[in-house]
Amino acid sequence: MKEFDLPFLDRDTPLREAFGPMIIEKKSGIVVVGSSHAPILVTFDAAKKAFDTGVGTLGEVESESALSLLGHQPTLALNVLHQHGARFGVLWQVGRTARVLSISEPLADFYLTPPPGGACLNDPPDFYPPNQRDKNSPHVCVVCGSYLP
Ligand SMILES: [Zn+2]
Asked: What CATH code is carried by the domain that includes residue 66?
């Protein structure tokens, strides 16, 4: 079992806004919440693939569902995950962070890997994706002209 933090956003969030929090937090996934839905985990790759095919909001991305474990202690929560055959649960969410519990460390490590994205040095930065680098000037931000590492 492993506890880890991921950014979270609402299901109705436009998909193009989903990449920034993952790039800033250096996580390859995001927790997506909605009042009448179980939380879901969306990977950076799944979000990118969906964005490239024109999917509009985060809630529509192919994803893995997680159990809502609000109010559970981690050790009890692990039992609940096993009872339901679930791999992930969300223990709590506050501010822009959700605390996720996974049944194993390798499952968590996948999400804790930095995503293959970037950001320009402007404040606030522009993110890649959803923006696409100019092939001729890959280190110049196509939005603001700042340096893009
Ligand atoms: Zn920029």
From this structure: 3.10.580.10
